[in-house]
């Protein structure tokens, strides 16, 4: 939301950033609205993770961690099947897939750690 164009230029390059910002005012409005909703979603997810951190029920935390791991794996699959077809983002998807798998692996490590505490 703040300095979105500059962040796009830094991450994708000048030419790709121009293509991703939209060619008509209607497209630009749709992209800005989409970015706003994505920011709102990130805030809500962060708040949800913060709230779950204070839950003492291990079964619920295990359920939540499994859901987060599944979410990251499904995001990686979505990137492999759909994002790689976009020529403007073709060189970004491998890094993002690796990041998604690393995040899913962090939740798996959390599950292993809680499993170890439960059965020790």
TrEMBL record:
Residues 1-108 form the DUF7865 domain. It comes from the Eukaryota. It comes from Turnera subulata. Pfam families: DUF7865. The chain crosses the membrane at residues 37-56, 63-82, 97-115. This is DUF7865 domain-containing protein. Keywords: Membrane, Transmembrane, Transmembrane helix. The lineage of its organism: Eukaryota, Viridiplantae, Streptophyta, Embryophyta, Tracheophyta.
